[in-house]
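Re-running Phosphogluconate dehydratase to confirm reproducibility after the cluster update. Everything else is unchanged from the original entry.
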Amino acid sequence: MTIEAKVNARVAEVTDRIIRRSHDSRARYLDRIANAASTPVRRRLGCANQAHAFAACGGHDKKLMQDGHVPSLGIVTAYNDMLSAHQPYERFPELIRRSARAAGGVAQVAGGVPAMCDGITQGEAGMELSLFSREVIALSTAIALSHQTFDAAVFLGICDKIVPGLVIGALSFGHLPAVFIPSGPMTSGLANDAKAKIRQAYAEGKVGRDALLEAEAQAYHGAGTCTFYGTANTNQMLMEIMGLQLPGASFVNPNTPLRDALTCAATERALDITSLGNQYIPIGRVLDERAFVNGIVGLHATGGSTNLTLHLVAMGAAAGLTLTWDDFADLAEVTPLIARIYPNGSADVNHFHAAGGMSFLIRELLAAGLLHRDALTVCGAGLDAYLQEPRLDVEGRLTWRDGPAASGDTAVLRGTSDPFQTTGGLRVLNGSLGRAVIKTSAVAPQRHVIEAPARVFHCQEDLQRSFAAGELTGDMIAVVRFQGPKANGMPELHKLMPLLGVLQDRGLKVALVTDGRLSGASGKVPTAIHVTPEAADGGAIARIRDGDVIRLDAETGRLDVLVAPGEWAARACAQADLSAAHTGIGRELFGFFRERVSCADRGASVFVT
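Result of re-run:
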């Protein structure tokens, strides 16, 4: 079904200014990938080079590779069997190889990339490597594709830094078609709100560790992504709405016939769109300004992860596009929140999918003129294909049908005419403390403005100790600083949420201000994150003292310290001994990253100056 709607004026305005701002860098990028596309390398490799490339192939594949007239598909995989979301990828390469043969091509695993689980490293030293793992994944992707023997690539990755890293790496080979293949969410376990209550009860000492571990095990109980709407599932929404996945592929459960059929279809599609045929669709052309604007709109409409305010900026830069937080802020003002998935509600992504999922979401946003309908995707020109959803017919064959015209559960998913709130779930803050991001979609409206004295901490452990000692008894804005990318890699501070939630439930006015990150599942406590400039870079957050009154105003988009201007200007920045955060658990290997990394609103990337 075709939906005609004029593009919203704000959406058009933001898109146009990205085009103007990025004119020179985007032109250089497109010239580079055009030059790469005009000189296909595999067919001119030396005989020894080619022999090495297919030496381990089976006889049939080796013959096809030796003849050199069939498309060759590279598989870049983030498989490991520790991440629940990535464990199903163990069997994907063989599925892809078989599908490629059936379609007249050849597929090989080109390389693997690291995949760490933020859920395991939360609150631990390893979390300080998490954000930088995105850059390592991008570098590993480039190495995998550097053999220059492939006509297209498929990418197996889902979780937090993994998809952005794969995208950045793929864009460095922007002349190649790229299709992303998810594995899907685990089936629903213990409800997310029930899990949150157990976590808070544990923080208050009302239940023991055994009860907490049992609840966590019931929530995270099988293969697939965690079912809350954190960064991993936000990534999947983005890959679909930005046109890098097949329609309806994001939230089909792992190890099911439909999931396998979608994996096979994605393989076939990747082979269809190489430069050897008539439908050449390279990733560097797919990810243009329209795709990124569509992605930001999807982020706001679903109340997605705050981490994407970093990742989308870094991904855009890899395509020669300059995105700013102002683009996010301006699009949020015209994008209604039409999904409620935990932590923005009680439902999980399986409920979202059952209520209509991506096809309904895209249908509503298109009808409201909030998406670029003509954006290029791996399915061709336009988002119309993404109004369909996959099914298996009675003979087990993959078919497509129109997605639902109405939501199956308006407590989870609504139309744009009856949104949960009229603006998106993210807000950019500006003020005397710099710039920051706040996720408002899960915060009660009466808590969108908090004015309270500061309690300053230089690490999350100090705040945890103060809580355990019963020292946090009044209204406060907790300032946790020296957590930015230059300081210690910008870890997530998700472990602070249960105890801050306890204080809030006791009737206190509570908020958090930090130059660190929070999990994509950050929830009910108002939190200004990604404060930039960061404390380690001389940012204003380093001047705050205990007792300073801070005003966090998510309604007007302000973050200010209420100190007399003369006194504030005369203050020196606090210093912190960060040496303990620079060694151990591999952190000593990332000194270059900490020195090189850009500020948060430039993507916190070593590739962006």
